[in-house]
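Tokens for chain A. Residues wanted.
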């Protein structure tokens, strides 16, 4: 049986872990692009901490970050060998905040944008780990090297290689209110069936991706590129659902959610220089089970 001191120490350790949970979850989500997988990684981190002697750990957050990164690396490697995207587009599980959503809000400050997560899927697991830990969370390369069992310089080279590969990812405008105005203009144009107004808010090279999941083929097997084609795609199928769209924060950026006739969807927008550079529609039920909004009848 545990003595009183052991119980007190475990309670103290559990509290310190809870203090770091949001950080670890954000790191794991950036690595994995899935809240469900991130939660599994965080839980495994706690189990390893609970089995370890943490009395000699000087920086518990750094130690926990190293552990969760190793777990995520193993998960990425396993996922890489078995994932089959078929001919469709893979999109991550979004972080959505609608009205008062403490669970979603806890991740929004550190969440990686949808467009960036799509690009990160193209990296090898070591490249993704080095990039996310260093460029997103500021982890030193010597610590990253220890996670990867590589030298500090090798870790630096992995991050540099990853940086080159993600260089083309769009960088969203920082002004959230300005993002919201662009998205609101897009939704109004879609509801009105106004092609000219849609083209006004779409970047000429805008990319539209969709992921229905649930064992079905995506609506569009490959991304649609170009303002004219995307606007036509939106006006052909979106008005029935856009009518029910509500503003939301999606991975920290202006987005929308909709629910109609039992179908739930999330749209993430990447707004660059005042125009929409990417639209990501996610309607995979497994990826949206955390999103709670009221579905209108009809």
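Reply:
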């Amino acid at each position: 049986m545990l003595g009183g001191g052991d119980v007190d120490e475990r309670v103290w350790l559990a509290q310190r872990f809870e203090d770091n949970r949001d950080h670890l979850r954000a790191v794991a989500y950036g690595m994995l692009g899935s809240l469900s997988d991130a939660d599994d990684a965080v839980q495994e981190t706690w189990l390893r901490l609970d089995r370890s002697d943490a009395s000699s750990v000087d920086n518990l957050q750094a130690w926990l970050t190293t552990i969760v990164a190793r777990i995520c690396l193993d998960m990425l490697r396993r996922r890489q060998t078995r994932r089959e995207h078929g001919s469709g587009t893979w999109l991550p599980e979004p972080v959505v905040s609608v009205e008062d959503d403490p669970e979603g809000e806890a991740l929004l400050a550190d969440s990686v944008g949808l467009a960036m997560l799509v690009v990160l899927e193209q990296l090898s697991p070591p490249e993704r780990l080095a990039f996310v830990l260093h460029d997103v969370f500021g982890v030193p390369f010597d610590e990253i090297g220890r996670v990867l069992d590589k030298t500090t310089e090798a870790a630096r080279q992995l991050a540099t290689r990853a940086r080159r590969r993600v260089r083309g990812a769009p960088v969203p405008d920082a002004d959230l209110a300005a993002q919201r105005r662009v998205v609101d203009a897009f939704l109004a144009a879609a509801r009105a069936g106004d092609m000219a107004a849609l083209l006004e808010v779409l970047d000429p090279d805008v990319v539209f991706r969709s992921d229905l999941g649930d064992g079905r083929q995506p609506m569009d097997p490959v991304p649609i590129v170009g303002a004219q084609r995307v606007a036509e795609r939106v006006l052909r199928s979106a008005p029935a659902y856009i009518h029910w769209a509500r503003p939301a924060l999606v991975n920290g950026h202006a987005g929308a959610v909709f629910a109609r006739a039992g179908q739930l969807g999330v749209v993430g927008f990447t707004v660059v220089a005042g125009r929409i550079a990417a639209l990501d529609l996610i309607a995979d039920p497994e990826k949206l089970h955390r999103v709670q909004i009221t579905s209108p009848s009809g």
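The first helix runs from residue 4 to 32. Residues 4-166 form a domain with the Butyryl-CoA Dehydrogenase, subunit A; domain 3 fold (CATH 1.20.140.160).
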